[in-house]
Specification:
Helices cover 59% and strands 7% of the residues. With 189 residues, the chain is mainly alpha-helical. Strands 2-1-3 form a 3-stranded antiparallel beta sheet, with no helix packed on it.
Length: 189
């Protein structure tokens, strides 16, 4: 019969002379179960080692993790809320300037970006391109978040918390990918 040592987490065969004090004799079947479970080993109420049970995660916890990831993705794009206001103001002024066929007085937000040899037209076009990427990233975050939350609700209703957690993990990765190179992580406009 094998032994399990809770102090070291090691298994020992009964033919060894150096089995640590405090080791617990177990069956070969239990040893195989413990090794194959892939989970940490804890002592059960009966004093025998058993695989640590996964902590049950609730629907609310999974949904909140998706919402937190969306918040972080939006933060990666816009930074603080006042930066989002600044980006939107720059977009509006660039749209107005472009609608006027880049003629007339250059709006202040556009003029601020027209530097280092960049013309007012190039600045406006750059602002509009960044605004389009910013808006697309926000659409992707929202669509991904809401679709995932519905799929997570369905998985949990079916009792499949593992699938729900997988959906959440995939959603986090998708939202992170959606914001790469957009907004404050890209060239400032």
């Amino acid at each position: 019969m094998p032994f399990y040592d809770p102090a070291s987490g090691g298994f020992y065969s009964d033919d060894r002379l150096d089995i640590p004090d405090g080791s617990v004799e177990i069956t070969e079947e239990r040893r195989t179960l413990l090794i194959n479970s892939g989970r940490p080993i804890v002592l059960g109420a009966d004093g025998l080692p058993e695989p640590q049970q996964a902590v049950a995660i609730t629907l609310q916890q999974i949904l909140e993790s998706v919402d937190r990831a969306a918040d972080q993705a939006r933060e990666a794009v816009a930074g603080d809320p006042l930066r989002a206001v600044e980006y939107d103001r720059a977009r509006l002024e660039a749209e107005q300037f472009a609608a006027a066929d880049y003629q007339g007085e250059v709006p202040r937000m556009v003029a601020a970006w027209a530097l280092n040899g960049r013309t007012a037209r190039q600045a406006a076009d750059s602002i509009l391109a960044e605004a389009a990427a910013y808006t697309e990233a926000l659409y992707q975050i929202r669509e991904t978040r809401l679709q995932a939350k519905e799929l997570i609700r369905q998985a949990m209703a079916e009792g499949d918390s593992a699938r729900a957690e997988d959906i959440a993990a995939e959603t986090v990765a998708a939202m992170e990918a959606a914001v790469q190179g957009v907004g404050k992580g890209a060239e400032a406009t």
